[in-house]
Amino acid sequence: MYINEVIEQARAYNPNEYSRREMLAWCDEVSAMLSVEDRIIYRERTLPVAEDRSVLLPEGVRFENIVKVYMGAAEIPKVAYKTYDRRLTLPHWLHFHYKDGCYTDVVKVVYEEPYVPIRMPKYSGEIKVDRQAGTIVLNDCEFIPGDSLVIKTDDKVYENIHLMKTEYDPDNERAWILNVSDIPEPLDDKAEATVTRAITDKTVCGSPYDTMYIDYILAKIALFQKDMQTYSLYINRFDTKLSQYKQWLTSRMPHESTGMKNWW
């Protein structure tokens, strides 16, 4: 289920004046809990060794996300390396092969995929449109390639504008150039507008457990309205579905003797 569908259904059950941003934050709480505590996804990357005997970790990966580090077939104990920023510094006693001014060795890092919160970037101000180049210029940018943009002017809303690339404006160091897929014809070449990211995120869990998101939102609303009877009803429903989801995950975990079971 899409997060937008969760919010729409929650509003249908209980029309309310809570903002969309607040409801997205509540959905984010559920997704973060499921991703960090229950549905942990492991990734593996092979990374080159830099001149300072370190490797650059993937975006968002921190020390606590690292599970194992290997060089060849040998595992490097976690007490032997450290991280700063996105760099993982390797111990001095490791032997590296050096050729043509750089290390030729690679390190394999196994890590827990970090949870990425629902992004809600927003820009308000002047936009400049270049239809021939297929670009939009903003004075600030929190958007990333892959985002679907929504542009709202005084009288119209333009949707499904897909961002392909961002770059600095060489003529204005404070501006960003956004390369987009299609620029709507009615959009003025220069206008005051609000640009947001279309929320396309999905729930972490699938059907039938995804309705726990709706229960959580309704429980939050009842809690803030101090309706404890309704809060107890929805939070108990949420806890029940969460428990059932955990049991479903457990039944599909790898088994020592049979490998994956009950997965298909």
Rg calculated over all Cα atoms: 24 Å
Question: Helical percent range?
Answer: 25-40%
Overall, the morphology is: flat
Instruction: Give the strand order, joined by hyphens, for the main sheet.
Output: 10-11-14-13-12-15
Tell me how many strands there are.
15
Low confidence ranges: 257-264
Structural class: alpha+beta
The mean pLDDT is: 86
Q: Whole-Å distance between the termini?
A: 21 Å
> Major sheet, described briefly?
6 strands, antiparallel, barrel
Name the helix and strand elements from N-terminus to C-terminus, one letter apiece.
HHEEEEEEEEEEEEEEEHH
The helix tally amounts to 4
Strand content: 25-35%
Describe the overall structure.
By secondary structure, this protein is of the alpha+beta class. Helices cover 25% and strands 32% of the residues. The strands form four sheets. It has a six-stranded antiparallel barrel with strand order 10-11-14-13-12-15. The two termini are 21 Å apart.
